[in-house]
From TrEMBL:
It comes from the Bacteria. The lineage of its organism: Bacteria, Bacillati, Actinomycetota, Actinomycetes, Kitasatosporales. SUPFAM superfamilies: Metallo-dependent hydrolases. Residues 12-123 form the Amidohydrolase domain. InterPro entries: Amidohydro_3, Metal_Hydrolase, Metallo-hydrolase_Enzymes. This is Amidohydrolase 3 domain-containing protein. Pfam families: Amidohydro_3.
Amino acid sequence: MTVVCLPQGGCGAADGRDAAPVRLLRAAGVRVAAGSGSLRDVSNPVGRGDPLEAAYLLASCQGLTPEDAYAAVSTRARAAMGLPEVRVEAGFPADLLAVRGDGLPAALSLAYSRIVVHGGRVVARTSAVREYCDSAASGSGPGLPRQGRGPA
């Protein structure tokens, strides 16, 4: 049996329940996959539909390792939907997620830039810009983040 949970919240449950009891389910031998389907609904009015956010919540709130949390939104989610396994090898579907970051924990915690490849084509690109400014510097403040390396 596989249970697919939404780590962002309780799917609009009237009794105000929080997220699924992932640790209890796993301790009982249940395979747990996760999704990010709370897209601005009654359960999560600011939901973003971001699987990396769902993995972050599993790791930070449910005590899963980053690797296990990511597997819940990737390989186990694919298996729960009946989709074929994906590997970076000839003959496997070209469905990939490339994330900028120094390892999986950093990719989950900092929501770095990413590219989604489906069927061998880039289908989504997310860019995250972080700039840290010297708080003691004079001036009008840091302004808005910029993508280019040219003058602000």
